[in-house]
């Protein structure tokens, strides 16, 4: 029961409502076909930038997939599960998302923090721009780690604070209501390493005034846990 109450914090529920509104506004007037084509091209560019190659038949999860996550690029290349707490809302709200368009994808309508049944694990994990949307950051990172088979690979990306003095202000107000979690790059590295992830590459994918959008490419080596 405590786990469910964590997921239902006011800040997180507000962020989820704002996320739905953001997508509706962002996609207003866009051609779904053109948007999805552009998004698939974006995913291909991003994987190339991260020096990451899909592996045919590999079991993977798109954790925090949104309505047009990397599953739209990988569904015919890898064996994909895709997880998000707003999947039902996206299918109702948005013309770009219809589960029937991806019959090979196993869609999971649940928060990132929730455990999968029977301890299911994956050989690769994709977590793009999702980990700062969760209610409980530590629990979400634990859940992601529990999804990793021995030696699994993971890509994680997130906005991180560039200026230390702004981060406590954004945590308190919040200054970024779409993202309940506010952390810097060092916090991400330390949290990953504490859970047995070896960070092989860390890249700045985009720089803005307050945030950097960073990516981490990691390998699970749980013998290294402190």
Automatic annotation (TrEMBL):
Record keywords: Methyltransferase, Transferase, Ubiquinone
GO biological process: methylation
GO MF annotation list: methyltransferase activity
Domain of life, per lineage: Bacteria
Protein known as: 2-polyprenyl-6-hydroxyphenyl methylase / 3-demethylubiquinone-9 3-methyltransferase
Source organism: Neolewinella agarilytica
Taxonomic path: Bacteria, Pseudomonadati, Bacteroidota, Saprospiria, Saprospirales
């Amino acid at each position: 029961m405590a786990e469910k109450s964590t997921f239902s914090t006011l800040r997180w529920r507000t962020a989820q409502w704002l996320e739905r509104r953001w997508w509706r506004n962002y996609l207003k007037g866009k051609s779904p076909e053109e948007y999805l084509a552009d998004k698939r091209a974006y995913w291909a560019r991003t994987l190339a930038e991260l020096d990451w190659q899909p592996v045919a038949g590999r079991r993977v999860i798109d954790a925090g997939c949104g309505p047009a996550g990397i599953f739209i690029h990988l569904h015919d290349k890898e064996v994909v599960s895709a997880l998000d707490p707003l999947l039902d809302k996206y299918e109702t709200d948005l013309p770009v998302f219809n589960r029937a368009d991806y019959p090979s994808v196993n869609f999971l309508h649940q928060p990132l923090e929730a455990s999968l049944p029977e301890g299911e694990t994956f050989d690769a994990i994709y977590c793009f721009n999702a980990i700062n949307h969760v209610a409980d950051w530590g629990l979400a990172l634990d859940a992601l780690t529990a999804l990793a088979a021995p030696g699994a690979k993971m890509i994680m990306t997130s906005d991180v604070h560039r200026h230390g003095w702004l981060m406590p202000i954004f945590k308190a107000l919040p200054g970024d209501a779409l993202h309940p979690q506010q952390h810097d790059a060092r916090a991400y590295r330390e949290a990953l390493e504490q859970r047995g992830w070896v960070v092989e590459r860390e890249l700045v994918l985009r720089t803005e005034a307050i945030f950097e959008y960073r990516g981490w490419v990691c390998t699970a080596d749980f013998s290294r846990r402190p």
